[in-house]
Amino acid sequence: MRFALYGQLADEFGTPLWVIDEEKIRTNYRKLKKALRANYEKIKLYYAMKANSSLSVLRILRKEGACVDTASPGEVLLALRAGFSPSQLMFTAPNVRNEELRFLLDRGIKINVDSLSELRRLLKIGIPDFISVRVNPGVGAGCHPYDVLGGKGSKFGLSKEKALEAYEVAKHSGITRYGLHMHIGSGILSVKPFLKAGRKLLELAKEAHQGGIEFEQIDFGGGIGIPYKPEENEIDIEDFSAEFLGLFKQKIEEYGLGSPTFAMEPGRCIVGNAAVLLTRVNTIKNTSSKKFVGVDAGFNTLIRPALYRAYHDIVLEKSAEPSERCDVVGPLCEASDFLALDRNLPKVEEGDLLVVKNAGAYGFSMSSPYISRPRAAEVLVKGDRYELIREREGVADLLRHQRIASWLE
Ligand code: LLP
User: Fold this and answer.
1) Which of 28, 29, 156, 216 is the most exposed place for a label (fewest CB within 10 A)?
2) In a domain, 332, yes or no
């Protein structure tokens, strides 16, 4: 833990502050890529930029040779600004509007359609070269019910029957290049759900192939988790690769699918452990029932604890053993405004700097200016070098885009 550096950065740039470690992003990406490549030649990784869409993070991953999975026109524009070419981008989102489909078609971005409605509306606008269908393989998994995106009751993807219909529709429209897609959830720490869902996806690929569809790419989505809690273990990525690609290779051969690209869309496992959130203690409040540690980051800054009851390890420089149970709470006027509940920490005092770990995925990207608290700044660190990569928002950002109605003047 780089406490000296964190202290220096907090003094220089203020808190709350996101600190991103470039080397960790590179290491995570390389490790995954290498493990997958060890078992199959044609691997493509589309970084799911919803996890962290900072331009510098995107640029690092472009330099590593990644492609990007986008989910809004805004994400597409950011990825292009970071230097990706449209051919390196894919778009996967539910309930896409016609203007957005036109935007994607105009730029030649590969689309994973999420419904027959979307496909039909797309084909009325234009005929893309490539189309991929997002399938709900009937299997879901994730670290919280809100992180489970496949299985019964999920709004995402098409059933097998509807997906086969989609390929028929696409074929008749003259589309010639095809992909197949699933994304079953997020924060998965075992290969089992991937194998179960992957088997279903590949069975569907077989049926579509029998109907005349040649797959250029089969995309198994994101979802690889990271350990957040002390008792959780990292997924062994070499084992994951051997098992998952073992299944893939066996099935593409058995079903005569040729040699499609094996694609994944990792987000969390690339950036999750690559950033910390620094937050300063301003208030200590002891009540008859609890000690509250009041900090300057609430769910406006890191919403995962409030929204998913997510656990983020919190450390402070004091070397003392954890000795006090406390709630770490933010500056918002809501009971759900906590970073940690009933957490054992060394004796925390006003002015202490807390380091919230594993905050790189779905941290800044889910932050908001709720209660008119401008969003925090970001710093990129590489060894001993550091640079501000996102300025702290200010009052001007709160005032931008709004005006008082003319009749109220
Ligand atoms: N591909 C698609 C189509 C996705 O929807 C997602 C994430 C990913 C890839 C990347 O999944 P990952 O590798 O990061 O698990 N905000 C939640 C996570 C929501 C995930 C949404 N989809 C959280 O903080 O736990």
Assistant:
1) 216
2) yes
CA atoms within 13 A on the CB side of 74: 4
Residues 394-406 have pLDDT tens digits of 999 999 999 999 9
Tokens for 150, please give them. Answer: 């496949």
Are 260 and 117 in a shared domain? yes
For residue 369, give the 3-state DSSP assignment.
coil
Residues 234, 266 within the same domain: yes
Q: For residue 407, is it within any domain?
A: no
Is 402 part of any domain?
Answer: no
Whether 128 has a pLDDT exceeding 90, the answer reads yes
Tell which atom from ligand 1 comes closest to the C-alpha of 366: 16
What distance in Å separates the CA atoms of residue 222 and residue 28, rounded to the nearest whole number?
A: 14
> Per the structure, how many domains does the chain have?
2
| pLDDT tens column, 171-183 | 999 999 999 999 9
Write the pLDDT tens digit of every residue in 4-14: 999 999 999 99
Taking 80 as the threshold, does the pLDDT of residue 199 lie above it? yes
Atom of ligand 1 nearest to the CA of 268: 14
CB 49 within 8 A of CB 72: no
User: Ligand 1: which atom is nearest the Cα of residue 265?
Assistant: 9
Question: Whose structure tokens read 């203007």?
Answer: 99
- Looking at residues 196-213, what average pLDDT do you find? 98
Best of 29, 32, 50 for a ligand 1 pocket test (most atoms within 8 Å of beta carbon): 50
CATH number (domain holding residue 167): 3.20.20.10
Same-domain check for residues 191 and 80 = yes
In a domain, 173, yes or no: yes
The answer to whether 293 and 256 have CB atoms below 8 angstroms apart is no
pTM: 0.97
pLDDT class for 201, splitting at 50, 70, 90? very high
Residue 28 domain boundaries: 22-271
